[in-house]
Amino acid sequence: MLDQFNKWDPFRLEAEPGLGRMLAVSLGVHLLALILFTGVFHPHLRRDDRPVYYVDLVNLPVKNPQAGRPDAQANPPKEVKKETPAPAPKPPVKKSEPVVVAPKKPAETVKTAKASDKPKAQSKPAEKAKPAAKPSSKKTYEKETLDAVEALRRKQSMEDLKNKLAALTTADTRNGADSKTPLGMPDGKGDEAGPDEQLYIQKFLKENWSLSKYQVVRPDLEARVLITYNATGHLLDYRFIDESGDPTFDKSVKDAILKGKELPFEPKRRLEIEAVFNLKDLME
Amino acid sequence: MRLIIVIVSFCLFLLTTPGFAAKVEISAPGQQTIPLAITQLLPIEGGAQPEIAREIHDVLTWDLDLSGLFSMIDPDSFLSDAQRLGLTSSAVDFSQWRLLGAECLIKGGYRLAGDQLTMDVRLFDINGRRLLYGRTYRGKRKDLRLMAHAFADQILKSLTGTAGPFNSSLAFISNKSGRKELYLMEVDGFRPVRITDHRSIVLNPDFSPVGKDLLFTSYKAGNPDLYRKEIYSGQEARISSQKGLNIAARYRRDGRELALTLSRDGNAEIYLMGTDGTIHQRLTDNWGIDVDPSWSPTGEEIAFVSDRQGNPNVFIVKVLSGEVRRLTFEGKYNATPAWNPKGDRIAFSRMEDGRFDIYTIRPDGSDERRLTFGAGSKEHPRWSPDGRFIIYSSDEDGKKAIYVMRADGTGSRRLTPPSLGECSHPAWSASWL
Predict the structure, then answer these.
(1) Looking at the partner chain, which of A241, A259, A272 has a beta carbon nearest the beta carbon of B20?
(2) How far is CA B403 from the centre of its chain?
(3) Residue A195: Cβ within 10 Å count
(4) Are B119 and B242 part of one and the same domain?
(5) What chain B residue is nearest to A222 in terms of C-alpha separation?
(6) In this predicted model, what pLDDT tens digit does every residue of B414-428 receive, in sequence order?
(7) Is B101 inside a domain boundary?
């Protein structure tokens, strides 16, 4: 039969390569295209990978969150930063007007003390100097002034401490010194300002997932689903990688995904999420 | 050639594997109740009968609320679709209900022709925009509540895979007539009916597995004897009148054998008995008092109370071998065990600080949980046929009354009104449909 076929069309069989060769050629062409595309031989053709920094003032979720605090405000420009902490420390300074006076008076007292030699040598134990200062009324006056200044100083330092304490307890930490803390996530390692996209999606899916504990037949149920969103955040596809085996549980997972057909933000790229739904934290 | 196949397979594997997808874990649902909208049923034809619609609505709301599965959407927030009959999914404006946050919707209509009532009800899935369950019930006007209970059972079946227990009946003992007599009522406490007139003391009722007859102990003839009563025909027979106690009889799941306490030999022991009253086997033989038997669902074991080791505690005996093991070790007084239909928990009452509370425990003695708290003694726990609920008696409001709660101890509510006097010893029948 084969001989007959060869007899009628002998050249055709010789000219056409076998399936294996065709696959090999196809694979080769694809690999070549891949190599050229990735720019292994021509690095100048490679895509420009210079880092891009996002400044996201509305706290949109990002792919690579920087380290920081999720509740911090987005970092304003540096100039603004310098201005913002200023008002907080000022109020205590305003109250401390006598402090401006205080350094002057000790200066005077130093002068007078110099005049009275020894008492100044033992300047610190002012009380010990008291008896020596008694005789002259001028010295008494100076002494009183000194004491008054000292009292003022102590009072002022107490006031300062109180103000600091009040500032710490009442001021919004985001506007205080902590505003330097970058907006980000505690475990962030990236370079983009904003909350972690993955955590955001996790929260989004959780909020959409409704299942009563009275519907749960076993607490060890688990389903894994591959969910795909497009760049604008629309649900493109979902596929169960592993089903739980319980139809009620699986239906609730499916409903949760379909309920969130649109992400509340635009990921700006195609997004593939492998979501694991289980009941580890379900209260019995 | 092989190499090519391997390479192609590898490429295909890479394409299909989700290894490059970001992974998130959701370890508990965000909403742990299903938002449910129950609309008032509308007349399919003829004039509106608001009392019919209201009664069906009330029954459904009570049953479904007790289940703990749902959070009810406020009827005041309903939009125009609630005023449309809409018995098919194409006739329902799902977007309106979605706007209200509902995930399930109950709609329906009724028709009253003379004394014949037709109830056409539907359960819709809002997210899936589809009909989950629908049924037409026909009966007499007086059957309205039973129809609504039956529909509630089917709603639970649609959403959990297990039908509810609402279309069943509760038996209990009440002294309303001045004597302790046996009564029946609906699961939500409606329509209590006295079914005995022994004018003595009636105790410890238990339904047969099919729910058509009841066992109970009565002092009618002077001795605590065992009786069986057919519910529909009202026929009654004394099936055990052994000397001494004939109490706390419980049907095996297949209904062919009973376990009960007899004291014919002077001491209270657990016996197995045929439904005709013949003694099959003495199960326990101990100097202590052995009472309150409760079958495991498989019929292989029986939980009972014994004071053989000092204080009354719950023990388990294997029916075939007679081997006994102790289940409870805490508390000074543990009583009235009741094995749940799934077989994974046993409810019992324990006395602490002079009053009883309901507990559950696994049959292996682990995971003991206290279900009731607060004032009053809670006693005589019994499970619903689906294991979702527990009924019990409590005197927390002064007089003893029958209460129901979920199996986890939540959602307790009183069933018997004060007008029924002191109520105790509840039992839950199997579903009737």
Answers:
(1) A272
(2) 12
(3) 22
(4) no
(5) B27
(6) 999 999 999 999 999
(7) yes
